[in-house]
Amino acid sequence: MSAPLLEMQGVVKEFPGVRALDGVDLDVVAGEVHCLLGQNGAGKSTLIKVLAGAHQPDEGHIAWEGEPVTLPTPTAAMRHGIATIYQELDLADGLSVAENVYLGHEQSRLGFAQRSRMHDAARQLLRRLGHPEIPVTREVGELSAAGKQLVSMARALSHEARLIIMDEPSAVLAHDEVDNLFRIIGDLTAAGVAVVYISHRMDEIRRIGDRVTVLKDGRTVARGLPARSTPTSELVSLMTGRTVEYAFPPRPQGPDPDERPVLLEVEHLSRPGEFHDVSFTVRAGEIVGLAGLVGSGRSEILETVYGARRPASGRVRVAGSALRPGSITAAVRAGLGLAPEERKSQALFLHSSIAHNVSMSSLRRFARAGLVDARTELSATTDAVRRLDLRPPDPTRPVRTLSGGNQQKAVVARWLLTDCRLLLLDEPTRGVDVGARAELYALIRRLADSGVGVLLVSSEVPEVLGLADRVLVMREGRVVREAGALDLDESKVLDLVMEGSSV
Amino acid sequence: MSQQTSPPGGSGPLPATGQGSPAGPVRQTGSSPGRGSGRPAFLGHMGRVRNLGLFVVLVLLCVVGALSSDNFATSQNALVILTSAAVIGVITIGQTFVIIGGGIDLSVGAIVALGSVWCTTVATQSFGFGGMVFCALAVGAVVGLVNGLIIAYGNIVAFIVTIAMMASARGLAERISDRQSQVVTVESFNSLASTRFLGIPLLVHILAVAVLVGWVLLNRTTFGRRTFAIGGNQEAARLAGLDVRRHTVMLYALSGLCCGIAAIMLTARTTSGASNLGDLYELDSIAAVIIGGTLLTGGRGSLVGSILGVLVFTTITNIFVLNNLTTDIQQIAKGLIIVAAVLIQRRGRRTATP
To answer: Transmembrane residues, as ranges (chain A) (predicted)?
Structure first.
């Protein structure tokens, strides 16, 4: 191998009170996919920002093609050919595709933008990415997440990037879109571009990665391991310092689930364009999983059951009595609780404390004549926080300081206080690191064992199969199979899910 | 000057990164100097620090006032300042609720005018003191209710709805009064402005009670908690089971009610109702809320800060009047203060968020 394209040594970055990077080493060679692995808070985001020129390291050396460099601004990083594709894509929704691609380095003559030249160039870049069908004049806000990602990548290419950093790019993509992403990454690396790829998903790292660098607590704990042959258990133990596999709690050996009372009955529920004639039940103490691709109607069903969407036809009954359609208030009163897909934008009040977040749906419990009794509120939230083993167990802390897994626990804690009987979980482990996942799985099982019914949506098939008692497989808005989780395996579910779809 | 006071408190105890690491917060606990005050919300903490800065500004203004004019540092003048702060103060309370709840009310000045005109028509005055008070309160609350209903159930942004209401309510006030000033002949009503209780004008008492009630409502009740939640993240509030629409309606009705109270106070002071009363009060109240440290995007804010903001503005006006300076310079100073306050606010925020 030639001299590394990028080499970082002993990079340290301190923020007031936190040493976010505490000695990071990384070397990337041209034409490779270099995976960056680490729990949330291990320093991946800070590292990216250092490379993108958004943060300045306090110590350490960065070399680009063997020459020491400083990256004082994002523009400087771009000039060297380092481009970053952030998780929250930094595009201007109101501008066109071409305008976004050339944002900040518009092709202009005498101060006038040369639109047709930019359009042609942008079209060429999209063709290179295998998506000539995206119109360069379309407003970016109208594109899907996958489309936006492509625009972001086109922008990186327009800078003639030689190192592209991708922060969990697959998190916003559906299954077939991920395949396309991987194909593009393959083309890029074949052309000599290096890719730093960040992902929580082990199977992706195996598929496209060449080498892996593992971060833990701001430090490089392993550097340049072979991506395909390093055992998962070794990577996980490097990340966490302990050896955990995807650990699912055992299913209870209690009474036959069929004897437990039916909690939720969904009858012929339909919403045109989203899902058709969906019927199923959830019993007390049972975990029912909805498996399917993004866009197969899973989340929409959850939200319709919860009253956040109004069904065109069909009915939802909770413990025998019909639920008023389209009313979240009625659903919550009947004992439903939702942990939505996007924690930050749909569930949390980031300005507020953990306690205020947790008590939001049960405030009335703590109030007399509208006055909130802060003491009983605090003791109840402390209690819930302890029960879920949320860390740190101090409910007065701002909720935004929590890690992803603990934020999810705060959302679940909210529903503990309402005496929720049926918990609807939409992608409960998205953005949650491996160690915290196992905890969430155990927690969900514990809740079910205490008699709560759980309806679970997840894009990760092993998660649905490992956690749920019963699984509904969805495809294009219809339930195509209902079976016990033990009667299915991953490849069977994937077959059902993909069948007939254009992959 | 407040720049010197805010950073030490503002940056110290707040976790500085958005890493949200599982290990991070635990590690920070030991190293944060300002912890352990026992106050539940960090919000309260931020508010305290910011209010401290504003308080220092107010004290400095008083020093300037005392140095520039012999008449400033008298109890008589203090009451003058408080009395002139009373009307805009009550309006600002409602505005604070609306802005923390994620909205804005540009119609407050027009509602004051409409309330004032309506409660001083010959017909209303024939009902006497009680009739006039009820009329002003009802007009304010109903106009606010209409604002809220259109915003919440018509799904039109608050800026547009309340700017439309600003035009319509002012127009209605002009139509009712035919642009004539309507003299109040009910003596007991006018005496609201002249009465003193314990040596302090009744209007100042009204402001004090309104602030106290407003503070409790915002910081100690489910209503206040929901206001912060809806302003902070409307979608999350909806999915948490809050009735966002009903709450929005109540916020604007509350703002309208505050305008009704203000209309009574202002009409009593001027002993007449007129359609040009309350001109530009929307800007004065929003400015006070902003320099008081409330986020214009909602979700975070402080009522005490807003009231301090009102006092800062009225004190400036007072100093200018005592020194016979013209109002144009006053306006320039106001503008500078608003920009400076927002700059300081943003400094505080930058240390607080990633």
So the answer is: none
Q: Give the domain CATH number at B170.
A: 1.10.3470
Domain-located, residue B172: yes
- Minimal CA separation from A151 to chain B, in Å: 26
Q: What is the pLDDT along chain A (503 residues), one digit of tens a residue?
A: 467 899 999 999 887 656 788 889 999 999 999 999 876 667 888 898 899 988 899 999 999 998 999 889 888 888 899 998 887 677 888 899 998 888 877 777 777 777 888 889 899 999 888 888 889 999 988 888 788 888 988 988 888 899 999 988 887 777 778 888 899 899 899 999 999 998 867 778 888 999 999 988 788 988 888 988 887 767 767 776 543 456 788 887 665 667 789 999 999 999 998 899 999 999 999 999 998 876 678 889 999 999 999 999 999 999 999 999 999 999 999 999 999 988 888 999 998 999 999 999 999 999 998 999 999 999 999 999 998 888 888 999 999 888 888 999 999 999 999 989 999 999 898 777 767 888 889 999 999 999 999 999 987 778 888 899 999 998 888 999 999 988 888 777 877 876 544 33
Closest approach of chain B CAs to the CA of A22, in angstroms? 13
Dihedral sign for Cα B81, B86, B91, B95, please: positive
For B247, the domain range is 48-58+70-352
- Looking at chain B, which residue has its C-alpha nearest residue A400? B20
For residue B206, the surrounding DSSP H or E stretch is: helix B202-220
Burial of A129 (0-12, 13-18, 19+ CB in 10 A): buried
Structural domain count of chain B: 1
CA distance B227 to chain A (A): 11
In a domain, B152, yes or no: yes
d(CA B302, CA B292): 7
Rounded Cα distance, B165 and A241, in Å? 62
The answer to whether A352 contacts B240, with C-beta atoms less than 8 Å apart, is: no
Q: Which of A13, A14, A18 is the mutation pick for testing B, counting most B CBs within 10 A?
A: A18
Closest partner residue to B41 (CB to CB) among A46, A353, A363 is: A353
**How distant is the Cα of B31 from the closest Cα of chain A, in angstroms?**
7
State the pTM of this model.
Answer: 0.73
Contact A480, A474 (CB under 8 A): yes
The Cα diameter of chain B in Å comes to: 71
For residue B282, give how far its alpha carbon lies from the nearest alpha carbon of chain A (Å): 26
Give the closest of A356, A370, A401 to B15, CB-based: A401
CB atoms inside a 10 Å sphere around CB B122:
8
Q: B16 and A16 in contact by Cβ < 8 A?
A: yes
Note whether residue B269 is domain-resident. Answer: yes
| B236 closest CB neighbour out of A39, A332, A346 | A346
Give the chain B residue nearest A55 (alpha carbons): B354
Q: A15, B238: Cβ pair inside 8 Å?
A: no
Which among B16, B17, B225 has the least Cβ separation from residue A356? B225
Put simply, the answer to whether B31 touches A347 (Cβ < 8 Å) is: no
Q: Is the dihedral of CA A482, A488, A492, A493 positive or negative?
A: positive
ω into A392 cis (within 30 of 0): yes
Which chain A residues are Cβ-neighbours of B221 within 8 angstroms?
367, 370-372
Which one of A47, A351, A354, A416 makes the best mutation probe of the B interface by having the most chain B beta carbons within 10 Å? Answer: A351
Domain assignment of residue B137, yes or no: yes
Only one residue has tokens 């740190």, namely A392
